């Protein structure tokens, strides 16, 4: 085992993100289909690490402790860019997206159980390649795997779940941009030209120096840090009630409250300064998300797929096909058939195959290519980061029973 220190791992992630951006900048194909830059660099690293393992037998493990804090930075910045008016408008679409995600989780599990039976496995094993690992992610997989081993006799439950999650995570990164690009081109829809991006800047845009100076970036950093501190406080209060929510959801809520409930963080500044602070928030959120997702992908242990390759491969292919068809023909229409719906469709694969960060990365790549979608960047994190875990637990319990 070769262990890479946290400091070196962090700097490798930055280098990989730079490589991904450079490759995408030179590739019309990658830009056209809005493939996120972290996917390019992160997958190159994980593929190289897997090759080293298969050739020499040495495992390389990166220390990724700083990764989770970057996610808090990202969602705090998103909250600081959000307006209450967007949340109010997002009420009905939020419920619709939650309903669609719930229906899709049931379909995922039915497909997983059917394939497990077809391969002569315990049907319960199919749940580990369904909503447990794909919608739920590593945390949900780790929580349910011991139950499947001890109570249901699925001895390789953890391996199935982790392998499925890794494959789904990569697939989610790849399909989101092309789906949105197809919908945008097919239905000839455009974004509002007056909206600023929630994350990063458009590829064809120029950032004026007056809008991104030393003080505006520093104010953006201070605002993010304050929102994170408030988020930790919200987390502690919720924990005392006996419930738990992901910390990044607390930071998202904290950012929204800090921005909208009378705190003069932005309001006392001139219009130019407010634009500059927003640009600073967009830049910081883009950097933190890019490094986070790069670290997540470079940490994938692809050799773990080898033991159950045939079953996992068939399951993932069919789950991906199901996701694409459901997104294009159901989600897009149900969410309004407009540009915001197309951006949400870019993130739906992240909801059902990857993670919240994957969903947002796909949406970010699309918005940087075509324009802002403010409501999508509020609806998807709330559904994906909070409600979906609660509903998924109920769905899993139903199928296990």
From TrEMBL:
This is Sodium/glutamate symporter. The keyword Transmembrane applies. It is found in: Cell inner membrane. NCBIfam families: gltS. It comes from the Bacteria. The lineage of its organism: Bacteria, Pseudomonadati, Pseudomonadota, Alphaproteobacteria, Hyphomicrobiales. The gene is gltS. It is a multi-pass membrane protein. Catalyzes the sodium-dependent transport of glutamate. InterPro entries: GltS. It comes from Daeguia caeni. Belongs to the glutamate:Na(+) symporter (ESS) (TC 2.A.27) family. Keywords: Amino-acid transport, Cell inner membrane, Cell membrane, Ion transport, Membrane, Sodium, Sodium transport, Symport, Transmembrane, Transmembrane helix, Transport. The chain crosses the membrane at residues 6-23, 35-56, 62-82, 94-119, 162-184, 217-239, 245-262, 283-303, 309-332, 339-364, 376-400.
């Amino acid at each position: 085992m070769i262990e890479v220190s946290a400091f070196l791992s962090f700097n490798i992630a930055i280098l990989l993100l730079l490589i991904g951006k450079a490759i995408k900048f030179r590739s019309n194909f990658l830009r056209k289909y809005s493939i996120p830059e972290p996917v390019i660099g992160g997958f190159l690293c994980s593929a190289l690490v897997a090759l080293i393992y298969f050739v020499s037998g040495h495992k390389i493990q990166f220390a990724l402790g700083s990764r989770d804090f970057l996610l808090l930075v990202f969602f705090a910045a998103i909250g600081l860019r959000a307006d209450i008016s967007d949340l109010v408008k997002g009420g009905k679409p939020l419920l619709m997206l939650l309903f669609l995600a719930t229906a899709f989780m049931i379909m995922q599990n039915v497909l997983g159980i059917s394939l497990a039976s077809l391969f002569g496995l315990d049907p319960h094993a199919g749940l580990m390649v369904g909503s447990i690992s794909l919608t739920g992610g590593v945390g949900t997989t780790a929580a349910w795997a011991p139950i499947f081993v001890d109570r249901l006799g699925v001895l390789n439950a953890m391996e199935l779940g982790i392998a499925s999650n890794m494959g789904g995570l990569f697939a989610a990164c790849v399909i989101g941009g092309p789906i949105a690009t197809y919908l945008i081109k097919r239905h000839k829809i455009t974004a509002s030209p007056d909206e600023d991006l929630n994350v990063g800047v458009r590829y064809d845009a120029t950032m004026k120096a007056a809008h991104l100076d030393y003080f505006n970036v520093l104010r953006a950093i201070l605002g993010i840090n304050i929102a994170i501190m408030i988020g930790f406080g919200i987390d502690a209060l919720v924990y005392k009630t006996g419930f738990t929510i992901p910390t990044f959801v607390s930071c998202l809520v904290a950012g929204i409250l800090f921005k909208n409930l009378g705190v003069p963080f932005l309001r006392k500044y001139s219009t130019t300064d407010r634009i500059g602070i927003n640009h600073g928030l967009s830049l910081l959120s883009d950097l933190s998300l890019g490094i986070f997702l790069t670290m997540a992908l470079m940490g994938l242990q692809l050799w773990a797929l080898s033991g159950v390759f045939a079953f996992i491969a068939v399951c993932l292919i069919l789950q991906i096909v199901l996701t694409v068809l459901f997104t294009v023909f159901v989600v897009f229409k149900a969410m309004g058939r407009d540009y915001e719906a197309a951006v949400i469709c870019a993130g739906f694969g992240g909801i059902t195959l990857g993670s919240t960060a994957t969903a947002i990365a796909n949406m970010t790549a699309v918005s940087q290519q075509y324009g802002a979608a403010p409501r999508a960047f509020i609806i998807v994190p709330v559904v994906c980061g909070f409600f979906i875990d609660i509903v998924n637990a109920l769905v899993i319990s139903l199928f296990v029973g």
